[in-house]
Design a protein that fits this description.
It comes from Exophiala spinifera. By secondary structure, this protein is α/β, with parallel strands linked by helices. It is built from 17 helices and 18 strands. It folds into 3 domains: 8-177 and 283-365 and 415-426, FAD/NAD(P)-binding domain, CATH 3.50.50; 178-282, D-Amino Acid Oxidase, Chain A, domain 2 (2-Layer Sandwich); 367-404, no CATH class. The radius of gyration is 23 Å and the shape is globular.
Length: 464
């Protein structure tokens, strides 16, 4: 079973998911060309949370070493009511023990730079200033053309070009992003020096911690970035209308949303200059992410944009890329066809990301609950606050084994199916299951032919 090393994978879009796919496919043995519309590879936006399901990939690929001290682990994750009372508390060291991998905080551009450098180290051809505006597919392969008239041909094209995806619009013109709620987001970064100089009382609160104030119809999230030099500020609020596109907003109108909230939090918000509210767009579930020939496939926001209440958008795109790279590797080694690899990707990933989209919605609803629902929520997390306030060495030991926090975004045991998830392991298992289900079982060894061939192929290829 000779190794086929001439599979050429094209990637349209150089965001987190596209870079993850590029790294994973290159590690699998493919020739990879990534086409990015912008003239420079980079990211906009503020901070991003890297949960265990994504940090395990960065560690395996060596990206964590490239980013270094700009990956931050906080000492506490605190959730406060709008009036300032503590209603949920979590120790990230417990999360590391539970999941086996860290929960990091990082600037988006630092994470993107680490992924970009890793892609280069893995031999990916990164081509900037190459906006794709034409896609032609046949059974034999894929051809794309850029606005400059340059053409590229691939055996497989991965569309990772974001929520406004040209590849998705070409394959599925009827699938468009939707504003599924009235929630709008506001994002920015402040320096800790400015915060502590102008809001000195914040020193007692912001101690390498991640802090969320949640209240009726909105929440505020603060956490450190850039080796502790910067403070990420994310706020969300339910507006009086559905926000379908970025809208200008008067700064006084923004501050009025939080007029009755904790004074320290309000003073911090007075330091930001928000002039735009951003919609939280989602894509409806799709039955397929690929074309009829199974040689063009979508990932990330191009396939499944979701609300950000679980901070899983970029992580899910990176999972997609890691999964795709793994099954592509089995296609390269001849264990399955490329078409079968794409089928496995869709079969496993489509239902999984739909669950994540729902979990993100639920997380936001819990954080922005009002009235009796908010009272029930706060009462449910009282045990973890009591355990921490009583100075229990390990607060988790003081909780009953059935306890689950409703604060899904920072507590891995709340949604282990999401935060413990290993995309590469899942992909490898999917291939094994497929080979078992489609090949004959040997009567003597009780092992299916497909698995025999898979491992004899490894032996033959290693022996060159």
């Amino acid at each position: 079973m000779p190794l086929t090393s001439n599979l050429h994978v094209g990637i349209c879009g150089g965001g987190m998911g596209g870079l993850a796919a590029a790294i994973a496919a290159a590690r699998a043995g493919a020739k990879v060309t990534l086409l990015e519309a912008a003239r420079e590879l980079g990211e906009i936006g503020a901070g991003i949370q890297v949960f265990p399901n994504a940090s395990r990939l960065l560690i395996r690929w060596g990206v964590d070493k490239l980013i270094g001290d700009n990956l931050i682990v906080v000492d506490e994750a605190n959730t406060w009511a709008a009036d300032g009372s503590l209603i949920a508390h979590f120790d990230p060291k417990e999360g590391l023990k539970q999941s086996g991998f860290p929960h990091w905080l990082v600037r988006r551009d630092h994470l993107h730079a680490g992924l970009t450098e890793s892609a280069r180290h893995h031999g990916v051809n990164l081509v900037v200033g190459s906006r794709v505006n034409r896609l032609d597919c046949t059974q034999e392969g894929v051809k794309v053309t850029t606005t400059q008239g340059t053409a590229y041909e691939f055996d497989l094209l991965i569309g990772s070009d974001g929520i406004k995806s040209f590849i998705r619009q070409t394959l599925f013109p009827g699938v468009v992003p939707q504003a599924a709620s009235t929630v709008a987001a506001f994002r920015g970064i402040l320096s800790y020096d400015e915060v502590f100089n102008k809001v000195p009382e914040a020193r007692h609160l912001l101690r390498n911690t991640m802090d969320a104030w949640i209240g009726p119809n909105g929440y505020i999230l603060l956490y450190p970035l850039s080796a502790g030099a910067e403070l990420n500020v994310v706020t969300l609020f339910q507006m009086d209308h559905i926000v379908e596109r970025p809208e200008d907003m008067n700064i006084d109108e923004f501050r009025h949303l939080y007029k009755d909230w904790n004074p320290t939090a309000r003073k911090i918000l007075e330091l930001v200059n928000y002039t735009q509210k951003w919609p939280l767009l989602v894509l409806p579930p799709m039955k397929t992410w690929s074309n009829e020939f199974k040689n063009v496939v979508l990932l990330g926001d191009a396939a499944h944009a979701m609300q950000n209440h679980m901070a899983q958008g970029a992580a899910t795109a990176m999972e997609d890329g890691a999964f795709l790279g793994t099954v592509i590797g089995d296609a390269i080694r001849g264990n399955i066809t490329l078409s079968e690899a794409i089928d496995l990707y869709e079969k496993q990933r489509i239902p999984r990301v739909w669950v994540k989209q729902q979990a993100s919605f639920i997380s936001g609803t819990l954080n922005m609950a009002t009235g009796e629902e908010a009272t029930r929520r706060n009462r449910a997390s009282a045990p973890e606050v009591n355990a921490w306030s009583c100075n229990v060495v390990r607060p988790s030991d003081a909780l009953p084994p059935t306890y689950r926090s409703w604060q899904m975004y920072c507590t891995p045991t709340s949604v282990p199916g999401i935060l413990y998830y290993d995309a590469e392991g899942d992909a490898d298992n999917a291939v094994c299951e497929y080979l078992q289900s489609t090949t004959r079982m040997d009567d003597a060894t009780l092992v299916t032919d497909g698995l025999w061939k898979r491992w004899w192929g490894v032996i033959d290829n290693n022996g060159m």
